[in-house]
Structures are given as structure tokens and as C-alpha cells.
């Protein structure tokens, strides 16, 4: 009898690569500002977190961010920069998810927002199709590491936390899941994640 019946995956850093530096480089290019200074000034605090919970609109987020960073660009250029962070799929992830889907229920839980949601579901549609459901923070009104984010996923799955396993590259989010009795793995590489699965009794055939 298998130990887990469901797997919960983070997206950025686990399913696909991304770099926030690309955002500030784009904004610097179109605003005439310095990318390093923009990154230093950017605030991942209250405004950013409200946007990830869907509590403020894209227009409010743009205005507050541009005021904070002291530049003015078009909404289109703002969004182009904001969405430039996405890179390529993690090599091997498609084959892994394809194999896992035949045995486990697969869902994703990601901190995201209304502007990003216009981009990444299209870019990575080929891999997202392997998930039964994708839980986006701005849709469910809660973000990792908040307890309600994990509860929303567990309630949907209708299973005990102990029968799920969670994969995320953020140690804070992993610790939060563990406090809810969800088996959790901090992902540092694709190979390490696959090895962790094997060590926990997950049989893998196609992954090296």
C-alpha cells in the first residue's frame, strides 16, 4: 500500500525556473533607472502580499509600486517587466509528472497574482495539464505560508495531511506545511527532489 495518495507542488523553482532580476532589468531599461537600485527599493511587504491574496487590483499594485520606485511607465511596459521573470521548465519535470499522475493525485499551490496569471499558465500549459487542480493565492485569498492556503488544498483533496507530500523550494513554506502534519520536502534541485521521492517510497521508473 502506498504511503501517499496526493502530492502538492509549488510552481516557481520546482516546476519552472524564474528570476526576479529580469523584472528590474526590464523596468530599468524602459524607465532609465538603475536595476540594482530598483531591486533594493522594491518592497515584498504589505502591498505585494495583498496583491498575491487578490486583495488589491492590478491598477492599485502598479500605482503603489511605481510610486515606491519613483518611475512612471505604461501599464503595458509595467506588465511586460513584471512577467519577464519566467524562464524555462525544469528539465525532467514533464516526464516525472506524467509518471506520477498514474499513481497519485497531483495538485499545485502557488503564490501568484492577477498580472502573473495572465502569463505563466500559457507559458507552461504543457506541464500544468498534469495537475488535477492549480491553487493560485490570488484566487483562494491566501498565500503560503498562511495556514489557510494549505487548508484550502487539503479540503479540496479530502484526505488526511499525513497522506500528502509537499514540494517547495522555500524553507519557510516547507516549515509551515510541516506544522500541519504534511510531509514536506525543500527542493534544491530536480535530482534531489526525485531522490527524496524514492527515499520516501515513491517508485520512479523514468527519472534518473
From TrEMBL:
Region forming the signal peptide: none
Pfam families given in the database record: Hydrolase
Coiled coil stretches, renumbered: none
Superkingdom, taxonomy of origin: Bacteria
InterPro entries for the chain: HAD-like_sf, HAD-SF_hydro_IA, HAD_sf, PGP-like_dom2
Name of protein: Haloacid dehalogenase
Organism: candidate division WOR_3 bacterium SM1_77
